[in-house]
Amino acid sequence: MIKTKFEELGLKDSILKSINDLNFENPSDIQEKSIPVSLQGYDIIGQAQTGTGKTLAFGAPILSNMGPKGGAIQTLILAPTRELAIQVSEELLKLCKYEKYKILPIYGGQSFDRQLAALKRGVDIVVGTPGRILDHINRRTLKLQNVKFLVLDEADEMLNMGFIEDIESILSNLNEERQTLLFSATMPRPIKNLSKNYMKPDAQHIVIAKKSMTVSKIQQSYFLVNSSNKFDSLCRILDVDNPTTTIMFCKTKKGVDELVDALHGKGYSVEGMHGDMKQSQRMNTLAKFKSGQLHFLVATDVAARGIDVEDVTHVINYDLPQDIESYVHRIGRTGRANKEGIAYSFASRKEVSFIRQIENHTKSKIVKKDIPTLADIFSAKSGSLIENIGNVLQEDSYNTFLPMAKELINEYGAEDVTASLLKLMFDKELNCNYAEESVDVDDTTRLFLSIGKLDKARAKDVIEFLDNTAGVKGKEIGRIDILDKFSFVDVPSNLVNIILENSKGKMFGKRKVNIEISNKRK
């Protein structure tokens, strides 16, 4: 299949030159379909997933059609978060490398006076969050009557964050003859209403079909963990993979802080990002991560929105997200620009069913992996140890140590001395002092119970029954499948005998419950 080239889309030569400098080979689907339409001046509703190159899709044609620089604001771009506003402005700066339009990101948390001073000096493109843009409009410090191009980027996210009224207020201050480009991963009714009320009747709706929700280039795996071995498991994985640029996700701000502190204690180059941190601190952290000064970034979902860092090798879901879409957004931070990416998730027994839901929804495979043992770590690091020693031998810079080496070899033998030095090097390479050869994760056993829906049994009733009869708590119980006449329950293998001895034969309502180890998983 012959792929379309950027040169065939009708873009301005200077913009094509910038795209070539960025080493983009071929346009993505949304770029290929929307750029020619946008260049013709049509309003566009672009429906495509996050991470498909939407900034270039709207930025390249707008920059190609903009008038002379240095006058009034020609383009206004609205984005849901500060991080995304900054990211978009940075990408546009790269695209207009040979045009040198002045681009200003405007967002809350930044000095209002500083923004005002930049606006007075003259700006061609403003990229901002709705709240701060509206503040400027209300103060009459942002003149938008000459805006020719309006972009609503990630419109569904702006809707989710409650910006719909702000957006409508902003739209009411713009020239109706403008060209409007709306991009959104989903198309809920309020977004449809927005497009109907504020876009031209001949607006073009471009839909890019989902392709396994953009996870095809990402190797997805999960590790079965519990709260007591979770951090130890993480350290083992980092020791084996030795990733260079990794984003880790936690559910809560407290979780981010605790994980960052724990990783700091083990010597990792890591910082966190969440909503309670000052904007200047978050931007400084992101700058260090982008430049490679920082190898690990721990973030919440909200704080990570808009982060677009090239060459992220790993995404680690230290905590699983609340929904499947958030999972896809998270792991989409790696495997970009047709590169391979790795996504790991930590899951408890009760969370494995959610992993299966993700698989079904994304039509992808999430492989269960074993937590690395010390032998695995040794195997992973042995190659680099041998390579390092070989480099020292080739450099011939070890003469100072020869008398000491001869003395040790004469007393202990060459093999024992070499092995002991390798052990010292190996121990130094480890980020954690592992107490055990392997991580003990309770195996799960599936039990058959002779009660079901016909007995009016519900999951919470089964949990209550096992608690009352055997003292087994709900947090220890995994998947529960209730059929008409019987049920299946996943429990830790070390609790099976306790349940059989204490719960088997006990009454559930008016029936004695028979419990057996199941040989089949239904």
What do we call the CATH homologous superfamily of the largest domain? P-loop containing nucleotide triphosphate hydrolases
Number of helices: 20
CATH topology of the largest domain: Rossmann fold
CATH class category name of the largest domain: Alpha Beta
Mean pLDDT score: 87
Structural class: alpha/beta
Domain DEAD-box RNA helicase Q: 4-32
Domain Helicase C-terminal: 217-378
Motif (Q motif): 4-32
GO molecular function, one term: RNA strand annealing activity
In words, what does this structure look like?
- The protein has 4 domains: 6-209, P-loop containing nucleotide triphosphate hydrolases (Rossmann fold, 3-Layer(aba) Sandwich), CATH 3.40.50; 213-372, 3-Layer(aba) Sandwich (Rossmann fold); 375-429, no CATH class; 444-517, 2-Layer Sandwich (Alpha-Beta Plaits).
- It is 42% helix and 16% strand.
- It has 20 helices and 20 strands.
- A hairpin with a 2-residue loop joins strand 18 (507-508) and strand 19.
- The mean pLDDT is 87.
- Residues 4-32 form the DEAD-box RNA helicase Q domain.
- Pfam families: DbpA, DEAD, Helicase_C.
- InterPro entries: DbpA/CsdA_RNA-bd_dom, DEAD/DEAH_box_helicase_dom, DEAD/DEAH_RhlB, DEAD_box_RNA_helicases, Helicase_ATP-bd, Helicase_C-like, Nucleotide-bd_a/b_plait_sf, P-loop_NTPase.
- GO terms for molecular function: ATP binding; hydrolase activity; RNA helicase activity; RNA strand annealing activity.
